[in-house]
Amino acid sequence: PFEVELARSGMVLTVEPGQTVLAAVRAAGVAVDASCEGGICGACRTRVLSGEPRHADRVLKPSERAEAMMICVGGSRSPRLTLDL
Ligand code: FES
Fold this sequence. Notes:
about 80 residues; two-stranded antiparallel sheet; binds FE2/S2 (inorganic) cluster; five-stranded mixed beta sheet; globular; single chain; mainly beta
């Protein structure tokens, strides 16, 4: 598991193994855009303010991967990610 901090509300969520960040965010009642939920459309692109995401999408260029992630598929390499949500 890892934690996701939502910068706009200050909420801190726990993402359990097998759960997506998208699912955890929605479970907390925060509305986010998503479409394919498979890492290919780009709809759920989210800015990463701190932490190191683990990417699993086919959308982002290498140069974009430090500062954004697709939350429908990506995880985290750090104990906490802070997202611009
Ligand atoms: Fe399509 Fe995440 S919903 S990339």
